[in-house]
Amino acid sequence: MAQRINLKVMVIDHDFYALRALNSYMAWDRRTRVVGLAESFEQALTLLDELPHVEHPSVVLLDSDTYDDAELTQIVRSLQRRIAKLDVICLAHQKNAARVQLVYDLAARAYFLRNEVRLLLMNAIIYALQRSFTVTRGVLEQLQAERSPLAERVDVLPRPREYPELTERIRQALWLYVIEGMPAQLAADEMGVSPHTVRSYIKEGYRILEAHDDSQYPEEMSPIERAFMRFTALDLHSGTPTEHTEASAKGSGQDSGQSEPS
After folding, report:
1. Strands 110-113 and 32-38: what pairing?
2. CATH number at 7-156
3. Neighbouring-strand partners of residue 7
4. Which residue among 101, 165, 224, 257 is buried most deeply as judged by most CB within 10 Å?
5. In the prediction, which pLDDT does 3 show?
6. DSSP E strands: which ranges in the chain?
7. Could you read off the pLDDT of 26-82 as tens digits, one per residue?
8. Residue 102: C-alpha distances to residues 59, 93, 134, 260 (Å)
């Protein structure tokens, strides 16, 4: 059975459009409930004051590029003091080993490059919460290039699950219908084919995704939700989901209504 998880997430990101994109990614996933979107740390504090204690986030996604080292330290420590057992995950564009070390020292859960997680965001968060400190592959490569000792202690986010049977056209149809949320008619217009052809692509895509995933999902989850989960899954069976030699025991707090192509 697919994990039944109920994560309450707050996102702090100065970029309005990035904030909405992150929210839309997580809205697809029943394991996640976004309890606050803040464009600044000050706004996040206001939201926390307004939320009942039981609605406080268990995870904060933090745009770490916005702050210098002193500011980032103050923000993370303030959040950790205010919310018991909070997990902080930093999102960044930069691959600076010193910044990654700082985030690690602050007992955050992960340091992810934005362009390496994207639609994998929710699976990346859940993966990180089950490990000590996780980075994306580009971050590991930077740590290794700078000969950081941290390179031997981090977990590495697995690559996306691959579906070799998905042709480019089937993948495009799944992207438009499952990820973009387009009705089959609009997806057909976008692809320059008939709605019947798009529906055929989508149904074949569902079959291929299911063939590569033996997870059992809650009965109330629609086919399009299951397709999203599979399309954005991590390859946990690649044989090298982590690339570390030492597990550091760090303490940390730890819909769509569519069911068939229309």
Report:
1. unpaired
2. 3.40.50.2300
3. 32
4. 224
5. 54
6. 7-12, 32-38, 59-63, 87-92, 110-113, 134-135, 155-156
7. 877 788 899 999 999 999 999 999 999 999 999 999 999 999 999 999 999 999 999
8. 19, 16, 14, 47
